[in-house]
Amino acid sequence: MDDARLNEELIDSLFAIRTQVHAELKELAREAGLTDTQTDVLWRLSREQEMTARRLADRLQCDASTATSMIDRLEKRGLVRRVPHPTDRRAKVIQLTAEGCELRDRIIRHTTEHSPFARLDHESRLRLRALLREVVDGPTPEGEGTEPKANHVEEGS
Q1: Please, which residues have CB within 8 angstroms of residue 37's CB and are 6 or more apart in sequence?
Q2: Structure confidence by residue, pLDDT tens digits, 127-144
């Protein structure tokens, strides 16, 4: 198989995985009264220490006004709050509330329990994770920690 065809098949596989994950989340999102994108926001807010509306818009590949209105809706539902940025007085950091953390945890639990990657054994998943990170970030030095940082900010923190 030539490289072009191999790359095409890899991309086809990524789209298929995305479709499977999306389908699994769709029902949970509907039960929680969220849109698919709002579910994505909760997931992303749990993966980074600080998230401004601008950064969220970049991650979701949408404009800032779309991200802001999405944050507004989540804030009205009591799932997120805006707090002052620690170093930039003009910016606000978006944080999950206790209720938002609870729903985020439910989303993560559901997604991981129904993960298409569960078909692979643990060692295969570790190898795939390393390969995918190399594709996304480039090679990392041997032995360097690559665990994602999760944001577990609780109400009142």
Answers
A1: 60, 70
A2: 999 999 999 898 766 655
